[in-house]
Amino acid sequence: MNKLFRYGLAWVLLFASHSALAQDSVPETSGFSGFFIAALGYFKVESNQIATGAPLLDDVSNEVIPSIFESPQSRSSPTFLFGGEIDYTFARSRTQIFFGNRLEDLLRLDLVVGLGVRQELPDKSILAASLLATPLDLKFWTDPFVESEARVKTGVDVPGIRLRWGRILKTGLELTATYREFRYDNETSGDWLIGQGRLNPADKPLLKRDGTTSRLQVLYRIDVAKKHRFEPAFRFIEDDLDGAAVANKGFSAQLTYLYRIPKLILDANIIYGRREADAVHPVYGKTLESDRYGVALSAFFPIKRFRSSVLNIMVGAEAFQEDANIAFYDSGAQSVSFGVLWRHIKK
Fold first, then answer.
1. What is the signed CA dihedral for 58, 11, 114, 135, rounded to 10 degrees?
2. What per-residue confidence (pLDDT) applies to 15?
């Protein structure tokens, strides 16, 4: 849910990049290529922010909570994840048009759809630009600060743009910039507390979650022989939300290790991140800060080849945690998943 990133639980869902399976090169021949993924999973989640929504098949936080001063209780949900990307290459101009999901977005439960173009430049670097939309999305609580009464769900529209420049100067350096806008269908954070006389109406704007998010990732691929690859990545993060108490800045650092042989691709990740809000939270009287850390392990087993196509079995497990200085904003996720990944590759 990398980050694929929503305030709260999605700070934690920074799943493996799976760059060994990504489609960021331009094939030498014209025609179609792409991938399709379908997977079943099981998630155990702690969150006071996210309610439910695709690909989750059940609620992952309680509709009624006893206190806004307690950490979230854990809830479990099965998931059904499906998606893919279709590409068409114009080999003569070294141009590729693509539509669909990036694999790393899908595996962190961010069902963002991109429409864009990849272009191989004269120096062999790859420049990609895409427009982003979220036809299916997670559901949040309209006002999460409600005690002992039913909370109401709301959707979020998250359009945006993404720019990616890889193989810079014929090296493993890659830069990715992502800009997205958060538009809640119904944002009423703090209304219940105002009605109870526990929050000054003048402080309500500090809690507004609409706004924009920006991510800049610097990644470097280091190949050691043919079997091993290391990918250190650093992300600069800014959530420029309308409410200063929930707007925040921070960073995350991730190390990916890939082991690649013909019968197996193994992807292991560790990640750490930190964020700090821009202003004191009017409900809790302190500035929100959090540390996020986690591990992820995935394996892909090719089981069938059809000329330029490969069918893979995929299994994975992840565990992530966010520790905040305000218990209400603690969050975490543990998951296991099993599925199939089909890829059609133009040479």
1. 30
2. 39
